[in-house]
Amino acid sequence: MIRIEHVTHAYGDRVVVDDVSLDLREHRIGLIGANGSGKSTLARMVNGLIVPDTGRVLVDGLDTRDHVKEIRRRVGFVFPDADTQIIMPTVAEDVRIGLRDSGLSRDEIEARVDEALARHGLLEHRDHPAHLLSSGQKQMLALASVLVTEPQILVCDEPTTLLDLRNVRIITETLRTLPQQVILLTHHLDTLSGFDRVLVMDAGKIVFDGAPEDAVAYYVALMEQRP
Amino acid sequence: MNTVGLYVPGTSLPYRIPAGVKLLALLGTVTVLVVLADPWVSLGAVLAVVLLYILWGLAAHLWHAFRPVLLFLVAIAVFHAVFTDVHTAVRVCSQLTAVILLAGLVTRTTPVSAMLDLFTRLARPLQHVGVRPERVGLVLALTIRCIPMVAEAWRASREAYVARGLRGGAHRMVVPVIVNLIRSAEALGLALSARGLD
């Protein structure tokens, strides 16, 4: 369970998250908003990548300010550009490095790596250079590399932004079937269909919180008001 | 084939030899060839390495391993033929060819992870002076990973430059490429943190 308590964060004079309080318990949660609305900053706080200026973020009762290692074991994070998320030169190596400190034996690690690659359709690319994969495959690799560590929560920051329609569908379907709690930030509003809860963020505040259809309608209306 | 993805998956004998043993064999070969400094020994070594490529089913990769240094070798051969003698030209070029082909064989039969594990193990004594061996491996891996990233940053800047109807002046690409790389490095650092690897 994620609890966000009176969180505020600013870059210089610009307040990007403004006194946000939330309890996030649902299995599938969407977060939408215009560029610069503060949603990426808020999402990064859940993984402890950004510590709020004021207020606190708790994951299963653990404050991200004090328990960052434990938080990062519990919360996986997927970035918009998979290219900058892939650390190792080859596909299997990138998945394997997440298990470096897992305490598993070499054979167990290899089995977990193969299982993760198979689940994400990458087993045949096991020993290929990661940078030669297609954009969709790179994003699947980014997902596999995060999910192999079995986090309880997955935060995805616009994982489909750089993808074509087919790959958007593949990633969306993958996210739908995950047992983890998923927090998805997206501009592809149709991917939120079937979600339990969708939040709309604007100017650092949560301005709507409800069912996907209502949230999307609110967001579209909000954007239409903008010059 | 590319500069980073040289490893060719396989299960034959060279794949089962530990990375450390292969690197020692490479080092030993270089030492012997340099110490003996005999063109016939060097030519024999070239022949032996070529046979290993064929024997281990990697004959198709022989040209890929040799092609990048061909012009370089021709230049060295011409230089020695003109300024020293043909004997030296043959010796130096055959020494280099044998070593380059053997290094190519090691690279093609050793996964990057095995090589990084080796360097991490080799760095273990350094932990007494505060160096974390796993960091050494990670830094090497990131260095290898960044080669295509730099190439991509250059390609993207070049395309943007040409798309705006600009020509020549490759030096003008330096600033956007560096800016692009700094941005990528920041994102990579963030990803390392997010995955608990920092």
Automatic annotation (TrEMBL), chain A:
Domain of life, source organism: Bacteria
What range(s) does the ABC transporter domain occupy? 2-225
Task: Quote the Gene3D superfamilies the UniProt record gives.
Answer: P-loop containing nucleotide triphosphate hydrolases
> What are the record keywords, sorted?
ATP-binding, Nucleotide-binding, Transport
Q: Which InterPro entries match?
A: AAA+_ATPase (IPR003593), ABC_transporter-like_ATP-bd (IPR003439), ABC_transporter-like_CS (IPR017871), ABC_transpr_CbiO/EcfA_su (IPR015856), ECF_ABC_transporter_ATP-bd (IPR050095), P-loop_NTPase (IPR027417)
**GO cellular component terms attached to this protein's record:** ATP-binding cassette (ABC) transporter complex
Q: Name one GO molecular function term.
A: ATP binding
| Family stated for the protein in its record | Belongs to the ABC transporter superfamily.
Q: What is this protein called?
A: ABC-type cobalt transport system ATPase component
User: Which species is listed as the source?
Assistant: Thermobifida fusca (strain YX)
UniProtKB/TrEMBL annotation, chain B:
Main location, first listed in the record: membrane
Which Pfam families does the entry link to?
A: CbiQ
Entry keyword Amino-acid biosynthesis? no
Q: What's one GO-annotated cellular component?
A: plasma membrane
Q: Which domain of life is it from?
A: Bacteria
Cite the InterPro entries for this sequence: ABC/ECF_trnsptr_transmembrane
The UniProt transmembrane annotation reads 15-36, 43-63, 69-86, 98-116
Q: Where in the cell?
A: Membrane
Q: Which UniProt keywords apply?
A: Membrane, Transmembrane, Transmembrane helix
Q: How does it sit in the membrane?
A: Multi-pass membrane protein
PANTHER family the UniProt entry points to: PROTEIN ABCI12, CHLOROPLASTIC
Designated name of the protein:
Cobalt transport system permease
Native organism is: Thermobifida fusca TM51
